[in-house]
């Protein structure tokens, strides 16, 4: 018998990685047999029966594609489905965007928003002069750190969430961005900030634009919730469009997971917009060529199905109008749940202030609950949420919002006795 060959990948060389906290939370929820368990962890829309919702307009687009005799499964171009990427650019930048008219934008279809952030990070790591640091909000989407770390871009944070007001720490945010070295990369959530649900006002966005311009910072917008936040596509894209109108060179990671319910189809776009210089078209041509090389070496060609669904809807006026109705329905249900939760907590006279539940926007709410309280909710009420106190408002419905409110009331009162 031959001697066993020792592995080259020992525990010292390849340590066991920790389980992803969010997906571990999902697994624990699924394994829990309790009939009143509540899932407030995963960032995916659920209807009032706590079920995944396939948008009616997506069902129509799906039927159109299935009945198309010309449909095939050939490769898409490296940059993706052109009818999709061009419509996606118009959606985020505006159909009348001067940047589009002046041909100083380029768009690449990506593996949803995660792929778009990664492609942008990879491009900046490779080509942005000076090897700058990227600054994230504190807190931010957990994957931001990992993505930029993986491509070797140094990371830092700027204050964002105020624990005392449960709103925006705008003073701290501005100071950190002002103190950052010139030409830093500033990652900004375009709307429905994840995980806090706290967004700057339009006047605050204007102040940030002045500050970023003075420091020659590079804005990197992450837009995962356009139309899903307020139900208004233009309103949710306002910050991006304003920065473009001010002549910024910037990039955008755009996801269609939430606003189309295409979570598993991984439909996204990365957009780069250069400033209105005389050689802007040449600049964007060079950038486009390098993005194609990066895409080719990583995924070669993006997946077709989700892009075709979105393209069918985005390019058909009647379907687009129906999609807007679907968006208003989703955003409206979440707003209704925010009002219901706040109302029930105030009715119970739960210690503390709960106006932040309705002040915040989008899929997530930063409740202000401590890690100890979050664990207590899981132990005694079978409520599953991330340990930082973030809840997915889409996980609440008319059948469980009172149960959740009473559970919160109980753990908050118990915590005050400690």
> How many strands?
13
Q: Roughly how much helix do the residues carry, as a percent range?
A: 40-55%
Major sheet summary line: 7 strands, mixed
Ranges where pLDDT stays below 50 over 5 or more residues in a row are none
Q: Enumerate the strands of the largest sheet in spatial order, edge to edge or round the barrel.
A: 2-10-9-8-7-3-4
Question: Could you state the order of secondary-structure elements as H and E?
Answer: HEHHHEHEHEEEHEHEHHEHEHHHHEHEEH
- CATH architecture group name of the largest domain: 3-Layer(aba) Sandwich
Mean of pLDDT? 93
* Envelope shape: globular
In CATH, the topology of the largest domain is named Aspartate Aminotransferase, domain 2
**Count of helical regions:** 17
Q: Write down the Rg.
A: 22 Å
- Tell me the β content: 5-15%
- The CATH first-level class of the largest domain comes to Alpha Beta
Annotated CATH homologous superfamily of the largest domain: Type I PLP-dependent aspartate aminotransferase-like (Major domain)
Distance between the termini: 64 Å
Please characterize this protein's 3D structure.
Pfam families: Aminotran_1_2. InterPro entries: Aminotransferase_I/II_large, Asp_trans, NHTrfase_class1_PyrdxlP-BS, PyrdxlP-dep_Trfase, PyrdxlP-dep_Trfase_major, PyrdxlP-dep_Trfase_small. One of its GO terms (molecular function) is L-aspartate:2-oxoglutarate aminotransferase activity. It is an enzyme of class 2 (transferase). The protein is of the alpha/beta class and 418 residues long. It folds into two domains: 21-54 and 332-417, Aspartate Aminotransferase, domain 1; 75-315, Type I PLP-dependent aspartate aminotransferase-like (Major domain) (Aspartate Aminotransferase, domain 2, 3-Layer(aba) Sandwich). Helix content is 46%, strand content 13%. The chain is built from 17 helices and 13 strands. The strands form four sheets. Strands 2-10-9-8-7-3-4 form a seven-stranded mixed beta sheet, sandwiched between helices. The mean pLDDT is 93.
């Amino acid at each position: 018998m031959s001697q066993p060959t020792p592995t080259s990948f020992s525990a010292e060389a390849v340590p066991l990685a920790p389980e992803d906290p969010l997906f571990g939370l999902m697994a624990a929820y699924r394994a829990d047999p309790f009939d009143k368990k509540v899932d407030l962890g995963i960032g995916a829309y659920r209807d009032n029966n706590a079920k995944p919702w396939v948008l009616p307009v997506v069902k129509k687009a799906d039927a159109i594609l299935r009945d198309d005799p010309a449909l095939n499964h050939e490769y898409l171009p490296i940059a993706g489905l052109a009818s999709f990427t061009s419509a996606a650019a118009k959606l985020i930048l505006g159909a009348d965007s001067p940047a589009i008219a002046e041909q100083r934008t380029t768009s690449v279809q990506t593996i949803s928003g995660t792929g778009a952030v990664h492609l942008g990070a990879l491009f900046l790591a490779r080509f942005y002069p000076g090897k700058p640091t990227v600054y994230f909000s504190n807190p931010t989407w957990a994957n931001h750190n990992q993505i930029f770390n993986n491509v070797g871009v140094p990371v830092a944070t700027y204050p964002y969430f105020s624990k005392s007001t449960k709103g925006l720490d705008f003073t701290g945010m501005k100071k950190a961005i002002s103190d950052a070295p010139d030409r830093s990369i500033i990652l900004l959530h375009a709307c429905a900030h994840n995980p806090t649900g706290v967004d700057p006002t339009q006047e605050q966005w204007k102040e940030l634009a002045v500050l970023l311009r003075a420091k020659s910072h590079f804005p990197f917008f992450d837009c995962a919730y356009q139309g899903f936040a307020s139900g208004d596509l233009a309103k949710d894209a306002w910050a991006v469009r304003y920065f473009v109108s001010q002549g910024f060179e910037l990039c955008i990671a755009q996801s269609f997971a939430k606003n189309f319910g295409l979570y598993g189809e991984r439909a996204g776009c990365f957009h780069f917009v250069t400033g209105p210089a005389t050689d802007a078209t040449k600049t964007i041509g060079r950038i486009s060529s390098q993005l194609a090389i990066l895409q080719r070496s990583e995924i070669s060609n993006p997946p077709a199905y989700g892009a075709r669904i979105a393209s069918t809807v985005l390019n058909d006026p009647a379907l687009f109008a129906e999609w807007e109705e679907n968006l208003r329905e989703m955003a409206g249900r979440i707003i209704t749940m925010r009002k219901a939760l706040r109302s029930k907590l105030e009715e119970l006279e739960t210690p503390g202030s709960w106006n932040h539940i309705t002040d915040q926007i989008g899929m997530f709410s930063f409740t202000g609950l401590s890690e100890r309280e979050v664990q207590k909710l899981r132990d005694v009420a079978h409520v599953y949420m991330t340990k930082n106190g973030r809840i997915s408002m889409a996980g609440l419905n008319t059948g469980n919002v009172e149960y959740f409110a009473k559970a919160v009331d109980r753990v908050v009162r118990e915590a005050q006795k400690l």
